[in-house]
## 1
Amino acid sequence: MLHKLTAKVKGASYSFVRNKLPKYCHRSRLLSSIYYGVFDKSFAREHQAVLAGRIKHVEEASQEKGNYFLMVRNTHRLEKGLLMRPRRAVFAKEYIGETMDNFESIWNHKEISGNPQMKWFYDVLSSYFESAGTDPDIEKYQERFKKKVNGFDTAMARADTPVKAVPYHRLQEQSSHITFEEFYKLTRQRRSVRWFDARPVPRELIDKAVLAANQSPSACNRQPYEFRIFDDPALVQEVTKYPMGTSGYGHNIPVMIVLVGNLDAYFDERDRHVIYIDASLAAMSFMLALETMGLSSCSINWPDVEEKEVKMEKFLKLKTQQRALMCMAVGYSDPEGMVAFSEKRPLDQIRQYN
Ligand SMILES: Cc1cc2nc3c(=O)[nH]c(=O)nc-3n(C[C@H](O)[C@H](O)[C@H](O)COP(=O)(O)O)c2cc1C
């Protein structure tokens, strides 16, 4: 009796919080914040992740090991300064100090020869200092740079690419020969495939698709994501259970991928959505690249449901600032299995000029 009464009260209060209260709270930002701060914890994990990311970002920037994301962002900013028309005689004065601090720290800790981004940092900074003009503030950093990289040119002579990693003019003859028609065909060929045959997927092909994904645009080139790839059958079965959208076909997925976003790429909340955008752009290139190699895929939603988040967090050993973003099933499609037609919205429904 008491049990039934408790359930009834719980049901009524859930319905009040879920349906009635939002009707008042949505009218103001403060009330909305109170609603999500007190009555509904849907955003609690995201709030904590954003905050943890920002703090890690800021702390790392002033620590001995340096902040790699900051270094990438600032190198990108320097490149934009170098390619600006007309180029300003003096630029980047406000962030060259923090760039050099982080460059020196990263230089001390990362393997120089194996990481092409180290060469990019080096080349862009070299170009910047060559063209920065005479400014006493900048000259002081130029001296620090020279001292730090003393002897690096010899190391780079052994590197894969002798090309300077700085702004350049694109050459027509180096363009791809893919026509729009062929590209469009590829986009239509890609359909979400849910039935796979038992052939194992060579890691080499997945890596190639990740390489293509790696060329996707990302805000300030930070690439705040990771592909966590599972091809061990036991682990695939385990991770396939976590999202909601794999029921009925999860058992035949040969490879399961979880895209993870790193919120420590940002120093400010304003960029908190960028993990989703950047990872989605990469995911699209990844899936198209798979198609060119005869492989198929299906995107799988990652719902922000606390109980599921806890399982995924444990499985992937995620840090507080890391978020699972989406999953992807990958494999060779089973020709006996069908795909949904998935007709798309007509052009005039999805585009509008001016
Ligand atoms: C973010 C996202 C989440 C998705 N989640 C699921 C899912 O959980 N389960 C599933 O079977 N398909 C899922 N899909 C696949 C969509 O159903 C599919 O992309 C859509 O119906 C269009 O079909 P197409 O991919 O063949 O063009 C998802 C796709 C995206 C982009």
## 2
Amino acid sequence: MKIQAAVLEEFGKPLVVQEVELAEPRAGEVLVRLVACGVCHTDMYTASGVDPSGYAPTVLGHEGAGVVERCGEGVSLLAVGDHVVTLFSPQCGECVHCLSPLTNLCMSIREQQNLGYLPDGTTRLARDGHPLRHFMGTSTFAQYTVMPEIALARIDPEAPLDRACLFACGLATGLGAALKTASVRAGSTCVVFGAGMVGLGAVAGARLRGAERIVCVDLATERLELARGQGATDVMHGGEDAVERILEMTGGFGADYTFEATGNVAVMRQAVEAARMGWGLCTVCGVAGRGETLDVVPRLLITGRRICGSSFGGLKGREDVPVLVRRYLDGEIDVDPFISHRIALEDVNRGFELMHAQDGIRSVIEF
Ligand SMILES: [Zn+2]
Ligand SMILES: [Zn+2]
């Protein structure tokens, strides 16, 4: 079929919205009609050419939500008409990592996905007879996409898809970091560095776990206001003395849990230093630049602080994303304030511009 899609033709250049070919789903694959898709930092990062593992041409986009239109041979997890959220982090349910409760890093299709192919090593996207690669196994800046069934989470059809799409990446990552990776205890003190989509999700997750005090640190007053709306009890502007100020606020000890959601390694260090002696856990969610390292004084670890990382919030997508969407429907998670702009696919580059200007949290493409 012929579809409209936003193609990254060349690094550092605007995406080109155009007609491309999408082939039918093969065994284990599903055709999804996209209804909405968030514009995320990772899309812009790849488009810029800074990402060393990036490739072009490709159809970008990975924060999609839509409806299953057709199922390939042998598909058993989904049926036509199901409402789904796309998962760049799949859950096959069978690999050694899927079988372990300790990680969400499914191994089954990783290799091909990283190269821009579906699990059988080919693509369903083409232009003028030449294959186009799939981005993050999702390619959701398009009217339709073909994806493996193990990379789609079936959600309650009552959930509006323009909100549900945020659970495909940033929001779920932040929520999961607090709910699952750190598993924040009730009554604890949390500090969240960064009030973008991931950080705000972590604030909401800490609130859902019953944290008593949630401090959010960011440079933008506007974002800190959003953090308050998600449950932050205190907010502060970041800076070199941020750790000092946090120690002051916490009787000199630091926080039970800290979360880093900026990708800046200097901030990561602050997040480690702001964690409490004895048991403070620092969860790193931000993605640092290539070659950058985290500088930590080992004594901080000897005296009981711990550091862990969190990819997609430690969530096993097919299992955990529908639960988060349910909690949203139950009124526990306030998604609307995150959607700052609604745009058409043709305006996808404007979505990048808004993000670059730090205007709002999320632009959502509506198809
Ligand atoms: Zn993303
Ligand atoms: Zn797996």
